[in-house]
Fold this sequence. Notes:
Layout: H1 3-12, H2 14-70, H3 73-82, E1 89-96, E2 101-104, E3 124-128, E4 133-141, E5 144-153, H4 156-206, H5 221-256, E6 260-264, E7 270-273, H6 275-281, H7 285-288, E8 298-301, H8 314-321, E9 325-334, E10 341-351, E11 357-366, H9 368-432
Antiparallel strand pairs: 1-2, 1-5, 3-4, 4-5, 6-7, 6-11, 8-9, 9-10, 10-11
Amino acid sequence: xxxxxxxxxxxxxxxxxxxxxxxxxxxxxxxxxxxxxxxxxxxxxxxxxxxxxxxxxxxxxxxxxxxxxxxxxxxxxxxxxxxxxxxxxxxxxxxxxxxxxxxxxxxxxxxxxxxxxxxxxxxxxxxxxxxxxxxxxxxxxxxxxxxxxxxxxxxxxxxxxxxxxxxxxxxxxxxxxxxxxxxxxxxxxxxxxxxxxxxxxxxxxxxxxxxxxxxxxxxxxxxxxxxxxxxxxxxxxxxxxxxxxxxxxxxxxxxxxxxxxxxxxxxxxxxxxxxxxxxxxxxxxxxxxxxxxxxxxxxxxxxxxxxxxxxxxxxxxxxxxxxxxxxxxxxxxxxxxxxxxxxxxxxxxxxxxxxxxxxxxxxxxxxxxxxxxxxxxxxxxxxxxxxxxxxxxxxxxxxxxxxxxxxxxxxxxxxxxxxxxxxxxxxxxxxxx
Length: 433
């Protein structure tokens, strides 16, 4: 196993973190226990060492008091030599009341003066450490101070015992850490095995097995999680069935509606289309999916028959203007550049909860027949206008001829009236004559 795998196991998995946590707690607790035990043992040993030094010094001061008074150097030295068998003894000194050494375990120091003695005749601790406990006790003969007994004791034997205690404590701590880690591993394995069962179910569902469930029994947290997860899968299954039915119904409606529908993404790529749209553009669904608005497979024309620029395409206008584009007349010409199919187009952008356009639904209604009918009506209007003009010209000509005839008839009548008036005048003249 590689270092990276070990690190990932200890810090990235529940089992590893549980083992690491328990082992860490045991390590801290046992370390504190060993340190406390060692400190207590060291303090106890030092206290025992000091008591032993005092006891030995008191005994020597009592035994050597008379010999110090008599300055019996040989007897004092013999008394000192006897103490060599005392455990961990470093030195024994017998001195007169002025501090001059009369007997010493190191005889070469005989006759030297002790400068660190107390000026008063009382028991004095000169040094107190694990290395050396140095005690000086006054030798009294009655009430008279006659000298000093000084003892130095080390802790070699005690240090060995203390080292053994520390070593044993460390072994116990290590054993506690190993046992705790093993127990944590067992506990973590039991917990994570149930969690891994849920994870396996998740993997099966992710692989497409929608009927997979977690068969975990019990009343612990893992079982509760498994039950909740199974309930969630049941709800998702029911929702998937409902969604599938709704999608099937939607697709059937989309395919059977007598309107061409194309759904564009926000990048104008075609996401979906129905059969009417495929018939309109002369492509199947696979050919249309993923195509952009500007594609050589088709081109759009304005209502006047001129080529429509890309910016005026309904989907682009809906994306740019962020509003529905309604009742736009667009001519659609396929890749064969044959007959133009005229359509009435509506483009409706769809927004998400953040106000971003997710898709644009474009519908095409075939109005080619209506466009042809309108063209025929226009042509008929033009013919009628031409005929009206012709009839108007004919009427104008007839009117001119009538006016000429009328002018002739009117002139004749006027001449008849004048003639009749002249006849009447002539008759009147004739009658007068």
